[in-house]
Amino acid sequence: MSALTKIHLMRHGEVHNPAGVLYGRLPGYHLSELGQAMAGRVADVVADRAVAAVVSSPLERARETAAPIAAAHDLDVGIDDRLIEATNVFEGMSFGVGDGSLRHVRHWRHLRNPFRPSWGEPYTELAARMRAAVEDARDAARGHEALLVSHQLPIWTLRCFVEQRRLWHDPRRRECSLASLTTVTYDGDVIVSVAYSEPAADLLPSIGKPFSAGA
């Protein structure tokens, strides 16, 4: 058995969100038709890989993204609450100036500390739970590969932690597009590389930028 184990952290596909709100952990947000196509594309790309486990955030959009990938490997989708989206006080609102939530003075207090951040789950706690989920997946898929479907901020925070970058950042500069794969490779228990790829890059719509209303 190879000592190398690969953990692919996949961001879910595009979500049907006509109101353009920050949906966060809210229920009822499902993949759009394009999002389903993105999930299918990744399923095709990893079909010949030695994927031994497919694990998802409990949110609908993540589970729907994981489903065709698990089916391609005759696996069930495992659910891990540690892969869920970060909490955010702006959940359910449009975010921005103009007609967004930031035009209301009462919301400004939530922006007082971008280093924690003051509007949601602390980056250190987010990195810790994601690291634990990845390490458990590594142990379950020793010598093979596992694919974990999560969300933009949790994936990017983990990558920053692994690459020893600061955790606070400009959301517009995250390298974590829809249906992208951030791959962490272990030799035994030691991380030896982190790679990034976009199997569905040609399907990305105009909203498929590093930061969008939903993650």
TrEMBL record:
Please name the source species.
Haloactinopolyspora alba
Q: Which GO terms describe its molecular function?
A: phosphatase activity
One GO location term (cellular component): cytoplasm
**Cross-referenced Pfam families:** His_Phos_1
Question: Which InterPro entries does the entry link to?
Answer: His_Pase_superF_clade-1, His_PPase_superfam, PGM_Phosphatase
Tell me the domain of life: Bacteria
Which protein are we looking at? Answer: Broad specificity phosphatase PhoE
